[in-house]
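Quick start: what a row looks like.
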Amino acid sequence: METAGNLPSELTGFVGRASELDRLSAMVTGSRLATVTGAGGVGKTRLALHAASRLQDRFRDGVWLVELTGLRGADLTEHTVAEALRLPDHTTRVPREALAEHLADRELLLVLDGFDRLAEPCAALVADLLRRAPGLRVLAVGRRPLGITGELLLPLEPLPVGSEAVQLFTERAAAVLPGFAVTAANSAAVTELCSRLDGLPLALELAAVRLRALSVEQVLERLDDRFRLLTGGDPSAPARHRALRTAIGWSHELCSPAERLLWARLSVFAGRFDLEAVEYVCAGSGIAEAEVVEAVAALVAQSVLSRQEDGEGGPARYRMLDSVREYGAGWLAALGEEARVRRRHRDWYLGLATWCELDWFSPRQAEVAARVAADLPNLRLALEFSLDGMPGEPAEDPAVGQYLAGTLWFCWVGCGRLAEGRHWLGRALEVPAEHSEARAKVMWVFGYVALLQGDSAAALAVLQECRDEARAAGNAVAEAYALHRLGCLALVSDDMPRAERFIDDALLRYRSIGELNSNVLMAQVELAMSVAFQGDVEQAVRLAEEVREICRDHGERWTLAYALYVLGYAAWLAGEPERARRLTEESLAIDHAFDDLVGAVLALELLALITEGEGAPYEAAVLQGAAGRLWESVGLRLFGSRYFNAPHAVCEQRVRSALGDAAYAAALGEGALLGLDAAAHRALNRPRTPRRGEVLGRRGRPRLARTSPPPLLRRRAEAAAACGQRAVISGRSTPRRAARRRSPGSPCGWGRGRGGRPAAAG
């Protein structure tokens, strides 16, 4: 069975600490909160992760690492914990409420590493979560305690010099200098070196790297020469603090001028970063771009940087230990370069966001989603600098922050980060800025996020303001997007004629300005939903099929999932369960890959209905239970819409009739225990057994149903009744607006251009 959690694999052997490991394991097992404290470089994180790894089997819901060292703003603490837990939450709830609810019935260990800069908000969060989640245990790692009642502390001391320190130094030295061993000739020097470095693991590892070029005796001599010079500060400070600064400072002194400068400039990054970002941000006065690669390689060789693979064949990425980063940040401030380098950092990630937005509508959509996830810590820093500026100074140009927050709409909406997106969009709207286009984009994106969260009042207010300001300013693009999202708001509010009118208008405007992207195609899917809910299923199918074709031409997947959902629903209405399942399963698989909880939960509801029709009412109820649990993370269940609720209502009526109330409730309870991953896996991998009179084809799907499925009219009547509508008996809609009846040609105004690409219809 696969272990839940996100603990990284250990790249080097763990040395010593047997008694500390046993003590820490006992503390975590016997207490709700244990904290490992100690100086930077003493090995707190390594000990905590090794202990957590040994305890994984004791926690039903896994062990989860939350890295907080890169955070500067206290308001992102909860978002970072939620991100680490892979907790999608689209609601308007504060993140703490979503976390508490998610953890309420789970048994897991949360490892919080590097909370020092955010000790107070982190302590408040931990205390609240522990009070509200009885199955939660927390293992914290920092230089000071959290100070919470009931906290057990393990102050970590350096390794014993005569044994474990020598063992660690020897193993790390042998890794960089094969064949190295402690001999009679060098034993005294090794022991003295470990003693001088106070047995600090980080200091020992930095010293071991020097054996590529120096002997142990030479390392010891150079350390001795620089001890007084590099210690500095309070002579009464603990020796281990002086030793760490000595080791890091000594490594710094042995770097070339270009390497030292790069070290300082790299301190502006958070989490992992790639070589291209380093070349842009750090090159300049004192280090040419051509020198950056060699300087990075040198810092990796000296263990100042660690190189990490993403495991999927992507480019190498790098990260810096917190103690090493802090040392570099001190030098950067002393050089007076912090503002300039942070501006360069902001500009790089602004460019990255712009590229990702453009590439979202392409075959590289999945790559974009992965890239944004990997670079999210640095994107947060860029947003923070853009909106807040340097400490004690106002932001230079808040409109840049507004542009960045709006440009990342695909991250907030398409990649399942609505709550964090609303946080940044709200902050962007609060800052004073004159750049109307950037502000207009933030407004319609904010409205989009708010309506998906079920906050209709906030969405309506900001979208109307966006429309009016855009109209007054002659901003045709923003006005089209505002009208589109007002139509989407009407869609989820059950005002289908209004939804159709607004979205149809927006599509005509998109056509006139030559706009074609995922948002535009989503507008056509939403138009398809609005006309389907009014009874014109044939027109909805035409609209969705065209979206499907354009998506495949462009490699677009996110909007495709919603088009497939519409087509799956239409196939079910038409009495084609096999096709309905195939289309809806593909929709769910895409939504799951993008962590799009809105699309995924809609697909699950429809799959429950399809599953019931296949003669598996209990399994259908389980899927409904899973969807019900997930809706709590989306917002208002099925948007509070009787139209979107139709598949659920029909399914519930049939399943209750087949199972009875008690069995139905039991199945719902079973499904409510499933998270998104488990629910998607269960829905997409359900083994099929044939119903009476049914022959199974490949992959266990029905090949021929001898028992006829419910006829088309019955299915439409059930769906219409669930919506509170009169059934559409003829299969034709009532007369539509003239603009809706346009045919032949594209319903949204695009024909097929040369090379199969969409082109504006003349």
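That is the whole record. DSSP finds 33 helices and twelve strands in the chain. Residues 225-238, 689-711, 726-762 have pLDDT under 50 and may be disordered.
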